[in-house]
Specification:
heterodimer, A: about 250 residues, alpha+beta, Ubiquitin-like (UB roll), Fumarate Reductase Iron-sulfur Protein, Chain B, domain 2, two-stranded antiparallel sheet, 9 helices, B: about 140 residues, mainly alpha, 3 helical TM bundles of succinate and fumarate reductases, two-stranded antiparallel ribbon, 4 helices
Chain lengths: ~250, ~140
């Protein structure tokens, strides 16, 4: 540890005690290589053991430690304290989700939506091991590769004002994952998933704010997935006049 | 399970003033607001077409209205708004398009936005040239 310290305000909310959340200030010693997550761990170990927050891998792959750092959705483990050395650091739970306790949010809505899109390959044709693997060209892989790197950290939901205003919206991350499977040449469940895309709660609740893609720590670009599907949804709408549903599979 | 009542009381934060909390959202709202000025300007031009159909005197009166100081001020504001409108929409355009591959490489977002802006500039220049060309 060094003798440098940082003032950190953390939003506290203990449902059994507090009528509403409030900011609690902490003074944390820090060095250049310390992350916001490490600061929270320091607070929990040394200053106030009642502080609740989610974390796991410490290396930006589990997607557990998403929170608002000075109002911006970020993974606490990949945000360094040195960048906030001048001035204040304020930590809030992820925006647009109900606060369960302190920095822990209720993610049930996200999980339910994630399940609803069937986030797994539903093969177009069943193949036996003797027939060999499902082949794919590099170009076919490129169609979905970036969307498959989503870690379900929900930063994009905290970045989406449309989700904040109406949580009925399926939201950026889940729609990006939906597109990840629909854009996969091996998958055969596109038509089923498109029913979720067509709905008003599907892609049409998006107004192209674009902040979701800005905050994504994995370069998934959910805004691109959502807006590509606006075109796909519109195409489906017009094409049904010349190609009735259920045909031409 | 135990007979204890749940202490859960999820707290939902208000959304009031959400777009003022982040500069990104303010730029987004500015982009959306530009559409209103675009509509007003379209109505202004539409009104000109109606006046043109009513004859030369009506059309000249409309042109004279456009020359009023307040109208000139509106045009200056509208020009600035249109420039921002053009820039902000082409900036978001790469996110609205399917991936484009050229020679096996994905076309960069900045290239798509740049091409869009270049097209807008070319179209504007072409329009001025056509107007100069057909001018009596």
């Amino acid at each position: 540890m060094t003798d440098r310290t940082l003032e950190i305000e953390v939003l506290r909310y203990r449902p059994e005690r507090d009528a509403q959340p409030f900011y609690q200030p902490f003074t944390v010693p820090f060095s250049d290589d310390m992350s916001v997550l490490q600061a929270l761990l320091y607070i929990k170990d040394e200053l106030d053991s009642t502080l609740s927050f989610r974390w796991s891998c410490r290396m930006a792959i589990c997607g557990s430690c998403g929170m608002m750092v000075n109002g911006v959705p970020r993974l606490a483990c990949r945000t360094f304290l040195r960048n906030y050395a001048e001035g204040k650091l304020r930590i809030d739970p992820l925006n647009h989700f109900p606060i369960e306790r302190d920095l822990v949010v209720d993610a049930n809505d996200f999980i339910r939506k994630l399940e609803s899109i069937k986030p797994y390959l539903i093969p177009k044709e069943t193949r036996s091991p003797e027939q060999g693997e499902y082949l794919q060209t590099p170009r076919q892989l490129e169609q979905f590769r970036q969307f498959s790197t989503c870690i379900n950290c929900m930063l994009c939901y905290a970045a989406c004002p449309q989700y904040g205003l109406d949580s009925g919206f399926t939201g950026p991350g889940v729609l990006a994952l939906l597109h990840r499977y629909n854009a996969d040449s091996r998958d055969g469940a596109r038509e089923e998933r498109m029913q979720l895309v067509h709905a008003e709660e599907g892609v049409w609740s998006c107004t192209a704010v674009g902040y979701c893609s800005e905050v994504c720590p994995k370069g998934v670009d959910p805004a691109n997935a959502v807006n590509q599907n606006k075109t796909a949804s519109a195409m489906d709408y017009f094409l049904r006049f010349i190609k009735p549903r259920g045909q031409g599979k | 399970m135990s007979g204890q009542a749940s202490k859960r009381r999820p707290y939902i934060r208000p959304m009031q003033g959400w777009w003022r909390r982040n500069p990104f959202f303010m730029r987004y709202m500015a982009r959306e607001v530009t559409a209103i000025i675009v509509v007003i300007y379209a109505l202004l031009l539409g009104w000109g077409v109606v006046r043109l159909a009513q004859g030369e005197a009506a059309y000249e009166a409309w042109r004279a209205t456009l020359g009023m100081p307040l109208m000139l001020l509106f045009h200056a504001v509208a020009l600035a708004v249109f420039l921002y409108h053009t820039w902000s929409w082409f900036a978001i355009m790469p996110k609205t398009m399917p991936m484009i591959f050229i020679g096996g490489k994905k076309l960069a977002a900045s290239t798509i936005a740049g091409l869009g802006l270049a097209t807008a500039v070319a179209a504007t220049v072409a329009l001025f040239l056509v107007v100069e060309w057909i001018r009596p």
